[in-house]
Predict the structure.
Amino acid sequence: MSEARLPKLIFNTDGNWMLHYLPDRDPSAVMKMLPDLVGSGVDCLSVLVGIDDDISWRGSPHAEMWGDAVEQWEVGNRTSSGGFAAERLKHLHDCMVAVIEDGRELMNIYIEGCRAAGVTPYASFRMNDAHTSGEKIEAHVRSRIKRDHPDWLIGPLIQAETLGWQCGYSWQWDYAHEAVRNRFLGLIDETLERYDFDGVEIDWMRQPPFFRPAEAYKHVDKLTDFMVRAREIVDRHARARGRALTLVARIAPDLDEAHTLGMDARAWMRRGLADIFVLGSASLTCPEMHLAEAIEHARSCSERDVRVYLGLEGAYRLSSPLEGFETSVPAAQRAVAHNAHADGVDGVYIFNYDQRGHRAGVVESQDMIEEHKQLLRDVTRPDALAASTRCYTVTSSMIGPNRSYAHGDPRPKLPRQLPILAFGSGPRHAVPVRVADDVEAGLAAGRIKKIELRLRLTDHEDCMDRIVCEVNGERVDLNDRPTVSNRWDDTWIQVDDAPVVQGGNNVLVALDGHQVPDPWPVLNQCEIVLFGA
């Protein structure tokens, strides 16, 4: 049996490419984005089999076509979670219907377009999409199977960090039920029977949770058994075709947090239950991941050649303005990629990059511009990353109510009130910022032009005489430093002489004296910026 060609850059598309099928009913219009991606280094397209966790064809015994259960599309000013107006959601469904009316298969449009471009096509399955959980957004496109089987859903008692918290009810699947697990296994089997994909992606990060609150620990074996059975299905189809098929699993970036969700990811890698494991967040690109440990587990598998990929999201957490960008700053993505290559990753996977609102922007979201394409070209090339401007950050809370933490990410280190040294605080209260680059050699060679420490503080102006800053144990004065601000008036203090080193950098920002301040200063973000020559 021939070996599968493993890609260097996997691009996941969420199904919205089909929006272009109408009005001209032109299959090539669906694939119009692909040439730019191929020119930017993408060699694999992972195609969502439908929308959310429904599918794009009719007649399946396991699922229905997305939108077929909608009773009324016009529901006031309701929008999707992506900000699309309701009529655009209807247009998605109309495009699916038009493809079928024309005697075509949407998945084959993707597959044939990929083959013509020399790109590997995978089928992507979102294992627990949550878009329909919120009553304000896509509730009207809930599938008939979910409406008919509320006992298969997580239901009440949902955590505040999960979509649907306002109504106290989650419409996500509860994987404690065998029927739920069999539904997805049946879909994987059916898809490989119907379509000539080169592999399957099981996307566990779209999205946790998979069980009722506090019950995941009881069901770890159920998700492991699911992966065993999925592996068997993919291998059976590979034998029938006489060529290898690739199984991809997108898992949590923090392996400890993965286990709390019911994923024994360490065992999955050691047992070779997938060929490629992508560590990626359920939300925004995570600056800290357990990639090095994951690689150790993958390499210990004796049954298969297991690979580990860095998972990027199109969007990044708020960071300071750089290179003309204020949102999803490419320099922050490049820093994550540079650290990942130092860990030894085998490739890169990017999610949601076909959505304009998730790509880097200055004021408004933009179509894909040269800087976006350049980021795609850079993320698989350690040499290009080493010569670029990079912004190294730590995990911080997301901006917005009740979305402070994404399941599976490392717990946020920031924001935090400044500790008071007189009360016993000290080096253990420092914020760790990892820079895998050889900073000293980079400065000497001229590929690093300069280094900046950037700190975003609030409620600190009246306490500046008390603030103590140390970087790797060396005192750094924050007074009279320049600042940089974005259009929302978030402001960062810039320090251009901080003693940054290769590896772990410990940044302590604390208060001297005994008086408890009011208001209490808060360190919101901490960054180390390496400016490329």
Notes: The chain has 14 helices and 20 strands. The longest strand covers residues 448-458. The chain has two domains: 9-390, 416-532. Residues 416-532 form a domain with the Jelly Rolls fold (CATH 2.60.120).
